[in-house]
Write a structure and sequence with these properties.
Blueprint (H helix, E strand, L loop, with lengths): L11 H16 L3 H14 L5 H17 L3 H13 L1 H7 L4 H7 L2 H11 L3 H13 L4 H9 L5
Helix pairs in contact: 1-2, 1-3, 2-3, 3-4, 3-5, 3-7, 4-7, 7-8, 8-9
């Protein structure tokens, strides 16, 4: 009887690198192509690690923002933010750099503002400030103070 080969199991880091490489290639053709790639990735990867999902949803939010798909962008931002603890757990030494590279806060603030939900945009500013993501979030918060 032949011995069955075990399925190849990639590390979270390798899975993330594959996602970023595929996205980079798809994004050359525009946000619609990037979204198509990401949608196929989510459909084809039922076991996508949650840390990778954080980055995938962040990339989705960026592409949806570029395409003006504000409701979908808000959903992707919420998904990305929900997976941040898993991203930190999987990449404890790289988390800070990765967090600073995410666009979900910027795109979430923009999407909420475009949809007229200035309170939610303000809350995202506050969350970004609490995470120490830069003074520009303080400026954004200050410009939205009227929404309180």
């Amino acid at each position: 009887m032949a011995k069955r080969n075990e399925p190849v199991r990639k590390s979270v880091k390798d899975t993330l690198e594959d996602l970023l490489a595929g996205h980079r290639e798809a994004a050359f053709s525009g946000p619609e192509s990037a979204l198509k790639y990401l949608r196929r990735t989510f459909e084809g990867q039922g076991s996508l690690p949650n840390a990778v999902k954080a980055v995938a949803y962040d990339l989705s939010a960026e592409a949806q923002g570029q395409a003006g798909l504000w409701e979908a962008c808000v959903e992707s931002v919420n998904q990305a933010l929900g997976y941040l603890p898993e991203l930190e757990a999987a990449f404890p030494h790289e988390y800070r750099r990765m967090l600073e590279g995410l666009t979900c806060f910027e795109r979430g603030i923009q999407a909420h503002s475009e949809l007229g939900d200035f309170h939610a945009a303000l809350e995202l500013c506050e969350r970004a400030i609490a995470l120490g993501l830069g003074a520009h979030y303080t400026a954004k918060r200050d410009s939205l103070e009227w929404a309180r």
